[in-house]
């Protein structure tokens, strides 16, 4: 019996989607308002999902208090109120799309989650636009 537990979290961050080798017009064509050269912010909503067998002694797949602390230490401390392009090393040469942010978050958490448990990250960039990544 495998069950999925979920923990929601939140962070605010600024970004700009652009390719250095393209001019502002080309970047606007591809990335729209997210290519604003002066950056802009999003209120990101994160859902971290862990799937596994509940421990027979505790009934927990994973202690959600530990998951909460892990998300705080690995994600919120690293990304909240940051300019992703400028202040977060993972995005030095990686465009901070919701897709890439989800992959970065997954990579930060994966080795902290018990072996044999599956991890999925769902990231909302807006209430209607969201992505999910499970390491495949
Ligand atoms: Ni944007």
Question: Would you mind describing this structure in some detail?
Answer:
This protein is 30% helix and 29% strand. It has 136 residues and is α+β, with helices and mostly antiparallel strands. The chain has a single domain (3-12, 42-133), classed as Tetrahydropterin Synthase, Chain A, CATH 3.30.479.10. A five-stranded mixed beta sheet has the order 3-1-2-4-5. The chain starts with a strand and ends with a strand. The relative contact order is 0.21. The mean pLDDT is 97. Bound molecules: nickel (II) ion.
SSE topology sketch:
Layout lengths: L2 E13 L8 H8 L8 E13 L11 H16 L2 E2 H4 L10 H13 L7 E7 L5 E4 L3
Parallel strand pairs: 1-3
Antiparallel strand pairs: 1-2, 2-4, 4-5
The chain binds nickel (II) ion.
Which overall shape is indicated by the principal axes computed on the Cα atoms? elongated
What's the number of structural domains? 1
CATH superfamily: 6-pyruvoyl tetrahydropterin synthase/QueD
Q: Any idea what the CATH architecture is?
A: 2-Layer Sandwich
Oligomer: single chain
How many individual β-strands?
5
How far apart the termini lie comes to: 22 Å
CATH topology: Tetrahydropterin Synthase, Chain A
How much helix, percentage-wise, in residues?
A: 25-40%
Strand order of the largest sheet: 3-1-2-4-5
CATH class: Alpha Beta
Radius of gyration: 17 Å
Which small-molecule species are bound to the chains here?
A: nickel (II) ion
The main sheet comes to: 5 strands, mixed
């Amino acid at each position: 019996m495998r069950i999925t537990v979920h923990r929601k979290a939140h962070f605010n961050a600024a970004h700009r989607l652009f390719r250095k080798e393209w001019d502002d017009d080309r970047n606007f064509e591809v990335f729209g308002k997210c290519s604003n050269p002066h950056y802009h912010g999003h209120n990101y909503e994160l859902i971290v999902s862990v799937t596994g067998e509940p421990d027979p002694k505790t009934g927990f797949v994973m202690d959600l208090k530990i998951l909460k602390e892990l998300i705080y230490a690995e994600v919120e401390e690293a990304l909240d109120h940051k300019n992703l392009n400028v202040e977060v090393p993972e995005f030095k040469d990686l465009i901070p799309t919701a897709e890439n942010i989800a992959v970065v978050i997954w990579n930060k958490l994966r080795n902290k989650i018990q072996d044999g448990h599956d991890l999925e990250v769902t990231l909302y960039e807006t209430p209607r636009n969201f992505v999910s990544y499970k390491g495949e």
